[in-house]
Amino acid sequence: MKTAVLASLVAAASAFAPAPAVRTTTSVSESKADLESLAGALNPQVKFYDPLSLSDQDFWGKGSEFTIGWLRQSEIKHGRIAMFAFVGYCVQSNVVFPWAQTLDGTPHPSADLVPEAQWDAVPAGAKWQIFAVISMLELWDECGGGGALPHYTKGRQPGKYPPFTLFRDNVHFVLGADLYDPLGFNKNMSEETKERRLRAELNNGRLAQLAIFGFLCADKIPGSVPALNSIAIPYEGDPMIPFEGQFSYFG
C-alpha cells in the first residue's frame, strides 16, 4: 500500500531538518543575501541553489524586492499544495468517504482506483466547485484580505495569508478570521518557534513536491521511479489535464 511509502519519506525527511535559526524574525522585504542566509539555515549541505538565477531577475520591471517576494510566495504556496496533494494521495489510495458523492446517490470513486483515476471519475460540476473555491481564496490572497495586509510583493511576510476579518464583519460569518489558526491556539507562540516552523514548512513543502511528482511519474511512466515499482498502478490518462474528457477549450 502507498501508506508504506509515507513512513519511509518521513524518515527521509530527517535529512531536511533545519539548522538553528540565523535570525529570529522573518524579513518582509528580502534581498538575495537574505535568500542565501535562509538557504543555509534550511539545508546546510545544499545551501543556496538557484541554477536558473531567478533571484537575479527583474520580473515585469518591478525590481528585485518585487521579484523575490513573488518567488518566495510562489514556492511556499506550491509547497503547501504539494503537502495537501501527497497526504491526499496516500489517503485516497486506501480510504474514501462512505457517504454519497452527489445528490443522486452516486458513491465516491473506489479506493481500488489510482488517485488520478479517482479524480477523472469526479463529475465536472464537482470539479468546478473545487476550482471556484480555489479561485476565491486566490482572489482574497491577491487583494490582501481587502487591504488588511499589503501585497506579498510589497512587504507582506512571505506565505502569510490575509485574515477573513473584513469578510466576516461585512459578508458572512466564518469560524475564526485566521486561516492558519482559526481557533487562536497559537496566538502566544514565540517568534523563535514561528521561525522554526516556517523553515520546517519550507523543507516539508520541497520534499512534498518531489514526493507527489514521484507518485504521478510512477503511475504514468512505468519504471520511471524504481522505488515505487511495487506499489505503482498504471494510469492511462493525463494527470496534467484536470478535465480530460469533460471540458476542453479546443472542442
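the 2nd protein, sequnce then structure:
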Amino acid sequence: MPPKQPTSLAVQTPSLTVHVSPATCHNISLFKDIMSQYRKLDDTIIMSLNRTNAKFRDLERAGIGKGSVQDQSCAHLWKDLVENWKRRTEIVDYCVNVVDQSLEEKRRSLDTVDADPAAQRKIKGALFAEEVKRNQIHYELTVEKIVRNRSLQVFQSRCKYFEPPLSDAQARQWWDAAEASR
C-alpha cells in the first residue's frame, strides 16, 4: 500500500492564510507565487528595519518603550523574520515531500505496467515531468538559503549588537551559519 500523501498544510502570515495542498505543490506557478509573497519581508528588509525603528522610537517618545529603541526594533524584526523563514521552510519541505512521493509512485507504476510501449512512453513522459517539478521544488531550498543569508547580512549590519535568543535552536543555527560565512 503506498504511503498516504499529506492532505494540507495551513500557513499563517499577518495578512493572509495560505492552505498548501498537494495540488499547490504540483502547480509550480502557484507555488512560486506563494513563495514570492512570503519573501516580501526579506525583499524589503531595509524598509522594514526603518519602519520598525520609527515605531519603537515613537513608543519611546510616548513613554511606553522598554529598553533602547535599537534593541526593541531589532528583536521585533528578528521575530518576524524567523517566523517567516520557518513558514517558508515548512512549505518547501512539505512540497518536496509531496513531489518526491508522487515521483516514487510514478516510478513504481512504470515497473508494474505491462510491456505495452504506448503505456510505458506515457508513464515515462509523466515521470520526466515529475522529475522537472521535483528539481524546481528542490531548487527552492537553495533559493531559501540565499535569501536568508542576504537578509541576515542586512539585519546584522543594522543590528550589530543583537544576539538571537538561545531558546530557538533553528534560528540560532541560521544565525551561526551566516556568521560562519562572513
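The mean pLDDT is 82. Residues 96 and 138 are 6 Å apart (CA to CA).
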